[in-house]
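Recall that a protein's primary structure is simply its ordered list of amino acids. Everything else, from secondary elements to tertiary packing, is in principle encoded there. The following example makes that idea concrete.
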Amino acid sequence: MDAPSELGDFLKSRRAALRPEDIGITPQPSRRRVTGLRREELAMLAGVSITHYTRLEQGRATTASDSVLDAIARTLRLTEDETAHLKDLARPAAGSRPAPPRVENAGASARQLLAAMTDVPALVLDRRNDVLAWNQLGHALLAGHLAPDSPGAAASRPNLIRMLFLDERYRQLYSHWNEEALLAVASLRLVAGRHPDDRRLAELIGRLSMLSPEFASRWARHPVRTCTSGLKRLQHPSVGVMDLSFENLCIPGSSGQRLIAYTAEPGSPSEAALRLLGSVAASSDTDFSAVQS
Protein backbone atom coordinates (compact mmCIF):
# COMPACT_ATOMS: atom_id res chain seq x y z
CA MET A 1 0.00 0.00 0.00
CA ASP A 2 1.36 3.38 -1.02
CA ALA A 3 0.84 5.82 1.87
CA PRO A 4 1.05 9.05 -0.21
CA SER A 5 -1.60 7.88 -2.68
CA GLU A 6 -3.75 6.51 0.16
CA LEU A 7 -3.57 9.91 1.84
CA GLY A 8 -4.54 11.72 -1.36
CA ASP A 9 -7.42 9.36 -2.06
CA PHE A 10 -8.69 9.69 1.50
CA LEU A 11 -8.62 13.51 1.44
CA LYS A 12 -10.28 13.63 -1.98
CA SER A 13 -13.05 11.30 -0.84
CA ARG A 14 -13.77 13.48 2.18
CA ARG A 15 -13.66 16.71 0.15
CA ALA A 16 -16.13 15.21 -2.32
CA ALA A 17 -18.48 14.18 0.49
CA LEU A 18 -18.71 17.67 2.02
CA ARG A 19 -21.12 20.00 0.23
CA PRO A 20 -20.16 23.71 0.08
CA GLU A 21 -23.54 24.78 1.46
CA ASP A 22 -22.95 22.61 4.54
CA ILE A 23 -20.20 24.99 5.63
CA GLY A 24 -21.68 28.30 4.52
CA ILE A 25 -20.39 28.52 0.95
CA THR A 26 -23.00 29.47 -1.65
CA PRO A 27 -22.09 27.56 -4.80
CA GLN A 28 -22.53 28.98 -8.29
CA PRO A 29 -23.58 25.95 -10.36
CA SER A 30 -22.62 27.49 -13.69
CA ARG A 31 -19.03 27.97 -12.53
CA ARG A 32 -18.59 24.79 -10.48
CA ARG A 33 -17.17 21.54 -11.82
CA VAL A 34 -17.06 19.58 -8.55
CA THR A 35 -19.83 18.64 -6.14
CA GLY A 36 -17.70 18.80 -3.02
CA LEU A 37 -15.17 21.28 -1.72
CA ARG A 38 -12.39 22.56 -3.92
CA ARG A 39 -8.83 22.40 -2.68
CA GLU A 40 -8.61 26.16 -2.33
CA GLU A 41 -11.87 26.31 -0.37
CA LEU A 42 -10.71 23.65 2.05
CA ALA A 43 -7.31 25.32 2.46
CA MET A 44 -8.91 28.71 3.12
CA LEU A 45 -11.40 27.35 5.68
CA ALA A 46 -8.67 25.35 7.44
CA GLY A 47 -6.27 28.29 7.50
CA VAL A 48 -3.67 26.38 5.49
CA SER A 49 -1.86 27.62 2.41
CA ILE A 50 -3.18 26.14 -0.82
CA THR A 51 0.38 25.16 -1.75
CA HIS A 52 0.89 23.23 1.48
CA TYR A 53 -2.50 21.51 1.24
CA THR A 54 -1.94 20.57 -2.40
CA ARG A 55 1.46 19.07 -1.58
CA LEU A 56 -0.18 17.14 1.27
CA GLU A 57 -2.94 15.76 -0.96
CA GLN A 58 -0.41 14.84 -3.64
CA GLY A 59 1.80 13.06 -1.12
CA ARG A 60 4.68 15.50 -1.56
CA ALA A 61 4.63 17.00 1.94
CA THR A 62 7.24 15.31 4.12
CA THR A 63 5.99 16.80 7.38
CA ALA A 64 2.64 17.93 8.67
CA SER A 65 2.06 19.31 12.14
CA ASP A 66 -0.75 18.27 14.44
CA SER A 67 -2.21 21.77 14.22
CA VAL A 68 -2.43 21.62 10.41
CA LEU A 69 -3.90 18.11 10.38
CA ASP A 70 -6.37 18.97 13.14
CA ALA A 71 -7.49 22.08 11.22
CA ILE A 72 -8.05 20.02 8.07
CA ALA A 73 -9.89 17.36 10.08
CA ARG A 74 -12.19 19.94 11.66
CA THR A 75 -12.96 21.51 8.30
CA LEU A 76 -13.73 18.12 6.76
CA ARG A 77 -15.77 17.21 9.86
CA LEU A 78 -13.84 14.01 10.39
CA THR A 79 -14.68 11.66 13.22
CA GLU A 80 -12.13 10.79 15.88
CA ASP A 81 -11.28 7.56 14.03
CA GLU A 82 -10.95 9.40 10.71
CA THR A 83 -8.70 12.04 12.27
CA ALA A 84 -6.42 9.33 13.66
CA HIS A 85 -6.38 7.69 10.23
CA LEU A 86 -5.47 11.00 8.58
CA LYS A 87 -2.47 11.35 10.88
CA ASP A 88 -1.37 7.76 10.27
CA LEU A 89 -1.40 8.34 6.53
CA ALA A 90 0.22 11.77 6.69
CA ARG A 91 3.08 10.61 8.90
CA PRO A 92 3.95 6.98 8.18
CA ALA A 93 6.93 5.51 9.97
CA ALA A 94 10.13 6.87 8.45
CA GLY A 95 11.77 4.47 6.04
CA SER A 96 9.19 1.76 6.60
CA ARG A 97 9.39 -1.19 4.20
CA PRO A 98 7.15 -4.21 3.80
CA ALA A 99 8.05 -6.61 6.57
CA PRO A 100 8.69 -10.26 5.73
CA PRO A 101 5.60 -12.42 6.39
CA ARG A 102 5.67 -13.85 9.90
CA VAL A 103 3.43 -16.62 11.20
CA GLU A 104 1.67 -15.60 14.41
CA ASN A 105 0.25 -17.88 17.03
CA ALA A 106 -1.87 -17.39 20.11
CA GLY A 107 0.10 -17.57 23.36
CA ALA A 108 -0.30 -20.42 25.81
CA SER A 109 -2.08 -18.22 28.38
CA ALA A 110 -4.57 -16.99 25.77
CA ARG A 111 -5.32 -20.57 24.71
CA GLN A 112 -5.75 -21.57 28.34
CA LEU A 113 -8.21 -18.72 28.83
CA LEU A 114 -10.19 -19.75 25.75
CA ALA A 115 -10.42 -23.34 26.93
CA ALA A 116 -11.71 -22.17 30.33
CA MET A 117 -14.50 -20.12 28.70
CA THR A 118 -16.70 -23.17 28.18
CA ASP A 119 -20.00 -21.27 28.08
CA VAL A 120 -18.80 -18.29 26.02
CA PRO A 121 -17.93 -18.39 22.31
CA ALA A 122 -14.47 -16.83 21.99
CA LEU A 123 -11.64 -16.48 19.49
CA VAL A 124 -8.15 -14.99 19.37
CA LEU A 125 -7.53 -12.88 16.26
CA ASP A 126 -4.53 -11.02 14.92
CA ARG A 127 -4.81 -7.50 13.53
CA ARG A 128 -5.60 -8.91 10.05
CA ASN A 129 -8.55 -10.88 11.50
CA ASP A 130 -6.84 -14.23 11.05
CA VAL A 131 -8.22 -16.74 13.57
CA LEU A 132 -5.26 -17.84 15.70
CA ALA A 133 -7.32 -19.96 18.08
CA TRP A 134 -10.92 -20.58 19.10
CA ASN A 135 -12.70 -22.52 21.78
CA GLN A 136 -15.26 -25.19 21.08
CA LEU A 137 -18.25 -22.87 21.25
CA GLY A 138 -16.53 -20.16 19.19
CA HIS A 139 -15.91 -22.65 16.40
CA ALA A 140 -19.49 -23.95 16.58
CA LEU A 141 -20.91 -20.43 16.49
CA LEU A 142 -18.97 -18.98 13.57
CA ALA A 143 -17.39 -21.73 11.53
CA GLY A 144 -18.82 -25.15 12.22
CA HIS A 145 -18.47 -25.92 8.51
CA LEU A 146 -14.68 -25.66 8.79
CA ALA A 147 -12.33 -28.18 10.32
CA PRO A 148 -11.91 -27.53 14.04
CA ASP A 149 -8.14 -27.53 13.73
CA SER A 150 -8.04 -25.08 10.80
CA PRO A 151 -6.46 -22.24 12.84
CA GLY A 152 -3.38 -24.45 13.09
CA ALA A 153 -2.69 -24.41 9.34
CA ALA A 154 -1.05 -21.06 8.56
CA ALA A 155 -1.58 -21.38 4.80
CA SER A 156 -5.34 -21.93 5.12
CA ARG A 157 -6.01 -20.23 8.44
CA PRO A 158 -9.55 -18.77 8.61
CA ASN A 159 -9.77 -15.01 8.20
CA LEU A 160 -13.06 -13.43 9.26
CA ILE A 161 -13.02 -10.63 6.69
CA ARG A 162 -12.09 -12.96 3.84
CA MET A 163 -14.85 -15.32 4.93
CA LEU A 164 -17.36 -12.48 5.14
CA PHE A 165 -16.90 -11.71 1.45
CA LEU A 166 -15.87 -15.07 -0.03
CA ASP A 167 -17.41 -17.80 2.17
CA GLU A 168 -21.14 -18.10 1.48
CA ARG A 169 -21.90 -20.17 4.58
CA TYR A 170 -20.19 -17.67 6.88
CA ARG A 171 -21.81 -14.77 5.05
CA GLN A 172 -25.27 -16.25 5.62
CA LEU A 173 -24.76 -16.05 9.39
CA TYR A 174 -25.24 -12.28 9.33
CA SER A 175 -28.81 -11.03 9.12
CA HIS A 176 -27.49 -7.51 8.47
CA TRP A 177 -24.69 -8.43 6.09
CA ASN A 178 -24.32 -5.01 4.45
CA GLU A 179 -23.80 -3.33 7.80
CA GLU A 180 -21.32 -6.00 8.86
CA ALA A 181 -19.41 -5.71 5.56
CA LEU A 182 -19.07 -1.93 5.80
CA LEU A 183 -17.87 -2.14 9.40
CA ALA A 184 -15.33 -4.84 8.49
CA VAL A 185 -13.89 -2.71 5.67
CA ALA A 186 -13.87 0.43 7.83
CA SER A 187 -11.98 -1.37 10.59
CA LEU A 188 -9.51 -2.82 8.08
CA ARG A 189 -8.87 0.68 6.67
CA LEU A 190 -7.89 1.90 10.12
CA VAL A 191 -5.50 -1.01 10.65
CA ALA A 192 -3.99 -0.60 7.18
CA GLY A 193 -3.24 3.07 7.88
CA ARG A 194 -1.43 2.14 11.07
CA HIS A 195 0.60 -0.67 9.49
CA PRO A 196 1.53 0.30 5.91
CA ASP A 197 4.54 -2.04 6.10
CA ASP A 198 2.47 -5.19 6.78
CA ARG A 199 2.93 -7.28 3.64
CA ARG A 200 0.41 -9.95 4.60
CA LEU A 201 -2.19 -7.29 5.29
CA ALA A 202 -1.54 -5.72 1.89
CA GLU A 203 -1.84 -9.16 0.25
CA LEU A 204 -5.19 -9.75 1.98
CA ILE A 205 -6.54 -6.41 0.76
CA GLY A 206 -5.25 -7.02 -2.76
CA ARG A 207 -6.76 -10.50 -2.94
CA LEU A 208 -10.14 -9.32 -1.68
CA SER A 209 -10.12 -6.39 -4.10
CA MET A 210 -9.57 -8.79 -7.00
CA LEU A 211 -11.97 -11.54 -5.94
CA SER A 212 -14.84 -9.53 -4.47
CA PRO A 213 -16.39 -6.54 -6.27
CA GLU A 214 -18.42 -5.95 -3.10
CA PHE A 215 -15.25 -5.53 -1.09
CA ALA A 216 -13.58 -3.40 -3.77
CA SER A 217 -16.50 -0.97 -3.99
CA ARG A 218 -16.60 -0.50 -0.22
CA TRP A 219 -12.82 -0.17 0.02
CA ALA A 220 -12.86 2.58 -2.61
CA ARG A 221 -15.20 4.69 -0.43
CA HIS A 222 -12.51 4.92 2.27
CA PRO A 223 -14.73 4.20 5.29
CA VAL A 224 -12.84 4.45 8.59
CA ARG A 225 -14.19 3.25 11.92
CA THR A 226 -13.12 1.17 14.85
CA CYS A 227 -15.49 -1.15 16.67
CA THR A 228 -14.63 -2.68 20.03
CA SER A 229 -18.10 -3.76 21.17
CA GLY A 230 -21.67 -3.98 19.99
CA LEU A 231 -24.51 -6.29 19.07
CA LYS A 232 -24.69 -8.80 16.22
CA ARG A 233 -27.73 -10.66 14.96
CA LEU A 234 -26.74 -14.10 13.71
CA GLN A 235 -28.89 -16.57 11.78
CA HIS A 236 -27.30 -19.83 12.85
CA PRO A 237 -28.10 -22.89 10.72
CA SER A 238 -28.48 -25.16 13.78
CA VAL A 239 -30.20 -23.03 16.44
CA GLY A 240 -31.76 -20.11 14.59
CA VAL A 241 -31.62 -16.38 15.30
CA MET A 242 -29.40 -15.08 18.10
CA ASP A 243 -28.76 -11.52 19.23
CA LEU A 244 -25.30 -11.57 20.79
CA SER A 245 -23.23 -8.84 22.39
CA PHE A 246 -19.52 -8.90 21.58
CA GLU A 247 -16.43 -7.41 23.19
CA ASN A 248 -12.93 -7.08 21.79
CA LEU A 249 -10.24 -7.35 24.45
CA CYS A 250 -6.72 -6.34 23.43
CA ILE A 251 -3.96 -8.77 24.41
CA PRO A 252 -0.93 -6.86 25.78
CA GLY A 253 2.04 -6.66 23.44
CA SER A 254 2.89 -5.21 20.05
CA SER A 255 1.34 -7.94 17.89
CA GLY A 256 -2.14 -6.41 17.79
CA GLN A 257 -3.78 -9.66 18.86
CA ARG A 258 -7.15 -9.51 20.55
CA LEU A 259 -9.71 -11.82 22.11
CA ILE A 260 -13.32 -11.48 20.98
CA ALA A 261 -16.12 -13.00 23.06
CA TYR A 262 -19.87 -13.25 22.50
CA THR A 263 -22.60 -13.28 25.17
CA ALA A 264 -26.40 -13.33 25.23
CA GLU A 265 -28.74 -11.42 27.51
CA PRO A 266 -29.60 -13.59 30.53
CA GLY A 267 -33.02 -15.24 30.23
CA SER A 268 -33.39 -14.36 26.57
CA PRO A 269 -34.20 -16.74 23.68
CA SER A 270 -30.69 -16.04 22.43
CA GLU A 271 -29.23 -17.38 25.67
CA ALA A 272 -31.32 -20.54 25.28
CA ALA A 273 -30.12 -20.91 21.69
CA LEU A 274 -26.51 -20.45 22.78
CA ARG A 275 -26.93 -23.15 25.44
CA LEU A 276 -28.39 -25.48 22.84
CA LEU A 277 -25.46 -24.81 20.53
CA GLY A 278 -23.11 -25.57 23.41
CA SER A 279 -24.80 -28.91 23.98
CA VAL A 280 -24.48 -29.79 20.31
CA ALA A 281 -20.81 -28.79 20.28
CA ALA A 282 -20.08 -30.72 23.48
CA SER A 283 -21.54 -33.90 21.98
CA SER A 284 -18.91 -33.84 19.24
CA ASP A 285 -16.38 -36.66 19.32
CA THR A 286 -13.56 -34.21 18.60
CA ASP A 287 -11.97 -32.19 21.38
CA PHE A 288 -10.95 -28.91 19.81
CA SER A 289 -11.01 -26.48 22.71
CA ALA A 290 -8.72 -23.53 21.96
CA VAL A 291 -7.27 -25.21 18.89
CA GLN A 292 -4.31 -23.54 17.16
CA SER A 293 -0.93 -24.55 15.80
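The longest helix spans residues 177-194. The chain is about 45% helix and 10% strand.
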